[in-house]
Amino acid sequence: KSANPQWREQFDFHYFSDRKDMLDIEVWRRDNKKHEELLGTCRVDITALPAKQTNCLELPLEKHPGSLLMLIAVAPCTGVSISDLCVCPLGDPNERQQISQRYCIKNSFRDIKDIGFLQVKVLKAVDLMAADFSGKSDPFCVLELGNDMLQTHTVYKNLNPEWNKVFTFPIKDIHDVLEVTVFDEDGDKPPDFLGKVAIPLLSV
């Protein structure tokens, strides 16, 4: 019930290549659970923004009245990584020792925001549902922790995919829940849901 909403949400997006990236933003109005209406869209060319500083942008919505006020900071990824299983970041004993030193009791208050990190090895899925007419699926796996999201590659025409990827997330809130969702890639259409698990960090 507001024409001037304030969300005050922070989202972290990670990309690991020197490609041209556009941030697409959509604003929706929801009447009830069944009815939604698009109120406008806008785009931000990430590569055109100055790096290592917070950019305050007022973005007019295309073909619709209104605008969005956003703070966007482009900075190198810290604490986030995707790697193959054979080059697991914590496989090196020297690195494990450095991490143990970094999070020992005497260093607890050196950086209050640096709570720790979570490393997840996504190995495989078994007996997935067939989403295609061929009796197969094109599955990929999405990992979400807080507002951080990373994903595997797609394994095509397979109900027992093997990804063998290692994902590392910085932990910002020890009460967060790791959500792991498997989707079926469906070309230009939205992906089909194949299954999901939720793991509270406090249970690890």
UniProtKB/TrEMBL annotation:
The keyword S-adenosyl-L-methionine does not apply. GO terms for biological process: regulation of neurotransmitter secretion. Belongs to the MCTP family. The keyword Repeat applies. It comes from the Eukaryota. PANTHER family: C2 DOMAIN-CONTAINING PROTEIN, MULTIPLE C2 AND TRANSMEMBRANE DOMAIN-CONTAINING PROTEIN 2. It is found in: Membrane. The lineage of its organism: Eukaryota, Metazoa, Chordata, Craniata, Vertebrata. This is MCTP2 protein. Residues 1-59, 93-204 form the C2 domain. It is a multi-pass membrane protein. InterPro entries: C2_dom (IPR000008), C2_domain_sf (IPR035892). GO terms for cellular component: synaptic vesicle membrane. GO terms for molecular function: calcium ion binding. Keywords: Calcium, Membrane, Metal-binding, Repeat, Transmembrane, Transmembrane helix.
